[in-house]
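Reopening this ticket.

The earlier resolution said the output was attached, but the attachment link was broken on my side. Pasting everything inline this time so it's all in one place.
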Amino acid sequence: MPGFMLMEFVYSASPSMLMWNKEMVYYSYKNNTINGFVMVTGLNQKLLEVSQGSTIHQLVIDYFGNAVIKMKNNVMIFFKVEMKNAAELPQWEKKSKNVVLYLNPSGNLYMLIINGSSIHREVYPLKTEMFTYIHGFQDICPYLVFQHSMDLNVYYLDMGDEVTFWAQIVYIENLGLSTVVEIYRPELLMQTTDVNYEIARGICTKNQVCYTKIVPVYNTICFLITIYLVVNYDWDKYGCLMDLYYAIPFHPDIALYDGSTFVETVEANFILWEIHGRSDYSYNSSMKQVGCLREAQTWISMLEEHENSTLDEIWGPQNYRSCFQSELGPLGDLNQLYQILNHSGYNSLIWPTEYSGIYVFRVKIVDPNFRGEFENLPHLFLIESHLYFSPNIGKVAGFSILILSILGGILIVSYFRYVKIYRALIYVDPLPSHDQQDQTRKTAHELKKDQ
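Inline output:
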C-alpha cells in the first residue's frame, strides 16, 4: 500500500483495525487472524473501479461498527466492521458538490454541503439507504429476530463490579445459529453463561444470559497508628457546619463576594486539603475518566518534590501543570485519582461510609490565569458528613404485620375464652313467673318436712 496511510482501531473484544490510503482499504480483524483488502460485493471490484477512478476522501466509523467510505466524486460505499465486502450506496449528491461527512458524539451521520462561505447540514439516513440497496437482493437473512439488553456501547467496571446481559436469536429450525460472546483479556473476568432453547412450530428461540464479574484483587497495606489527634471544633471562629449525607458525593462550588454582595462563581481550577490532617476522604473520578492526556499532579507527587515546604507552598499557580496538554514522553498512570476540582467538572469528594466526621478544608486556586483578591485570602469551608441508617421498608412492614398478627390472635383467643366462661354461668331470672314461685315454695316446704 504505497502513499500516506491512515489507521483507526475499532471497538472490538479482539483487536481489529482499518488502514487506508487514497486507493484502497486494508482490514485486520480478530487479532490479525482475518485480513485483506475491502472489495465491493457483486463483481468483486476494487474501490477505484466502482468510483470510476476517484480516490478516497473520507472513511467514517460510528460506535456500532458501521463504516462509510466517501470518494471524492461523492460515491458512497458501506461496509460493517469484520465484514470483508462492501456495498455501493445509492447516489445522494452530485459529483461537483463539495461534501464532507460528519459524525456527532451521539453517532448520527450528517452531510455538510459547503457552498462558498456557507455550510448546509443534511441528515444522512444510512440505515434507510442500506435497506434500499439490499431490497432487490435474493439473499435471505438466516435469523428472524435478534435482540439483546445491552443499552450502552461501553460499560465501565471496577474490581468486584458485575454486569448481566442477555441476547436472543429467533431462527428457522435446523439452521443451528447461535450467539458468541468474545472477551478481551478474559483472565480479568469471571464469566457465567446460561443458554436456553425454545422450539415452537418449526421456529427455534435461543436465549443466552451472560454474567460477568471483575475478579477482585486486593493489595492490602497495614499501618500501625501510634498518634491520635483530638481536635475541638471552634464554633466561634468557623461558625455553622454544612450537613452532608455520607453516601452522596459532594461537589464544592467557590463563589466570590464583595462583603455580602455576590460577585461571581469561580470557574478556575482549585485544590483543597483538610487543615487538621484528615485523609479519610477521597475523589470519585480518575485521571482517565476526566480525559487527562498525561499524568496529573497529585498531593503525593508534590510532597515528594517539595519535602521541606508546607502544604500551602508546595502547590499553587507558580507550578501548576495542566494534564490536558499532551507532551512527549510516557503518559504515566492515568488510573490515579484526579485531585483537582472546578465548577464545571464532574469530580467530587466522597466520604467514609463507616462513621460520621467533621472536616475543615482549606481551598487554593491553582489556575495561573485566575487573578483576583480571592487568591490571596484564606479560604475555608466546613463540612460534617453524617452516617444515617435509613429504615428497611420490608423489615419494618414485616415486623408490623407480625405484631398485629400476635395481637389479633390474643384478641381472638380471649373472645372465645370469655364466651365459654359466660355460657358456663347459671342464669338467674330477676323477675320469676308465678309458676316458678309456686315451684320454689313447694320445694322449700318439702325440704322443711325432710328436716
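Reporter confirms the inline version is readable. The chain is about 20% helix and 30% strand. The first helix runs from residue 47 to 50.
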